[in-house]
Backbone:
């Protein structure tokens, strides 16, 4: 088994990207989307999430540790690849490069986002509610930083879902891989819509 | 075309494994139906560069001259391919020749593809039938499966897929797509199947199948049109199942 550790870590990396991180991302953006229906709707949902039993244990096991593992191994993967989109400009090669590029963007974005929201809530400096996000996103540079971050996250998830299906040997034939490309594109558009729509609601109240 | 009486080659050269690479330009007389190898032979006949200086002949590797041995792969105008099958008439000029930089360079356009043969050893890409007594005939192979397997058997270890793969490089130990597809070929063979788990375990070792990042360049560039990404996905499934069998235990783990 010892010499197969690398295989195990890469498979775990692939699994964690979808379960639980991918599921958490979708759930997170679904709850955010409640901001579109008004401040009370969002505050009520965020309050429920915040008052879940064993919330710190849940967060650690479902969010912090998986993301930390995924990020650390991911950064290693990014820096052991050689990028060749100029020489080989195929669609999948571009997706390969973008997957790694958005991964690096996400390490920065998530670190900032967690510090600005969860850590500050934990320190008791702020409360998790609509006005917290309204305050952050009312600044135009922060709004665009969040747009880039959310779109990177959704792209990384949707494209990661495609390669998850290959890594676990579910889609093997070129035809099934082509169809899953379209399915993942729909996932990207749908989840991306939720993310951007809620950012607009927080920032501009529309 | 009468005006195309000269063909220009810009060749990336290197005098030895540790020497610094440099470019040299050659102009050689055009002949009809010339390929890159016949052009290199022309340079060898008269090793004078475009400045009129006497130089050493350009070294390259070749063998079969009909795109089945894989020895003469090099990067031609930015694309890794076999130089024997690269016709001068179909190439944009000046024609740029470079060695495949994924591999250690021996001299000029000659590279050392030993890592590919080490990879075949890692995944045990052969069928063990040698013994101290006659093992008798093996099981029969259905004709449609044989035809399918023939496509995978066209791999000539030419290295083009490794050159195009973003994950085969100095900082990674990934064995590359070719050996993964070969493991699938021998696991599909009725006799080879008897040692399937040994090949799958080889694929799970360091540098194995997990190094694939799904850029799918390999299947685009393979000169033999081998469905490399289908092979990788199929071996992904097989290694995952093998990993579960290894860990949780199963009568058929071996």
Residues:
């Amino acid at each position: 088994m010892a010499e197969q550790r690398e295989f195990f870590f890469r498979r775990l990396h692939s699994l964690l990207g979808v379960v639980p991180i991918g599921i958490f991302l979708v759930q997170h953006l679904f709850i955010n989307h409640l901001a579109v229906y008004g401040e009370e709707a969002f505050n009520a949902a965020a309050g429920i999430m915040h008052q879940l039993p064993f919330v710190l244990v849940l967060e650690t096991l479902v969010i912090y540790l998986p993301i930390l593992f995924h990020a650390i191994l991911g950064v290693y993967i990014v820096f052991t690849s050689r990028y060749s989109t100029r020489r080989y400009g195929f669609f999948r090669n571009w997706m390969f490069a973008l997957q790694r590029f958005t991964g690096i963007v996400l390490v920065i974005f998530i670190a900032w986002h967690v510090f600005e929201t969860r850590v500050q809530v934990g320190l008791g400096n702020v409360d998790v509610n609509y006005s917290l996000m309204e305050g952050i996103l009312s600044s135009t540079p922060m709004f665009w930083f969040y747009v880039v971050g959310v779109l990177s996250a959704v792209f990384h998830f949707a494209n990661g879902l495609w390669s998850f299906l290959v890594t676990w040997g579910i889609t093997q034939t070129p035809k099934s891989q082509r169809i899953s490309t379209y399915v993942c594109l729909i996932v990207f558009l749908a989840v991306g819509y939720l993310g951007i729509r809620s950012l607009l609601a927080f920032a501009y109240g529309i | 075309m009468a005006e195309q009486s000269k063909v220009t080659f810009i060749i990336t050269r290197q005098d030895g494994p540790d020497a610094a690479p440099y470019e040299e330009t050659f102009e050689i007389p055009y002949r009809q139906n010339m390929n890159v190898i016949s052009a290199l032979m022309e340079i060898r006949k008269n090793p004078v560069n475009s400045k009129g200086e006497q130089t050493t002949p350009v070294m390259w590797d070749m063998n079969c001259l009909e795109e089945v041995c894989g020895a003469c792969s090099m990067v031609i105008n930015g694309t890794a391919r076999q130089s024997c099958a690269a016709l001068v008439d179909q190439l944009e000029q000046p024609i740029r020749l470079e060695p495949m930089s994924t591999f250690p360079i021996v001299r000029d356009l000659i590279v050392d593809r030993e890592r590919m043969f080490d990879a075949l050893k890692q995944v045990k890409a052969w069928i063990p039938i040698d013994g101290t007594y006659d093992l008798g005939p093996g099981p029969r192979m259905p004709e449609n499966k044989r035809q399918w397997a023939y496509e995978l058997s066209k791999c000539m270890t030419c290295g083009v897929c490794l050159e195009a793969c973003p994950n085969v490089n100095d900082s990674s130990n990934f064995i590359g797509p070719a050996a993964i597809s070969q493991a699938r070929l021998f696991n599909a063979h009725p006799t080879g199947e008897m040692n399937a788990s040994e090949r799958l375990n080889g694929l799970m070792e360091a540098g194995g199948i997990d190094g694939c990042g799904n850029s799918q360049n390999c299947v685009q560039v393979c000169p033999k049109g081998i469905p490399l990404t289908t092979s990788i996905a199929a071996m992904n499934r097989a290694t995952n199942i093998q990993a579960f069998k290894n860990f949780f235990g199963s009568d058929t783990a071996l």
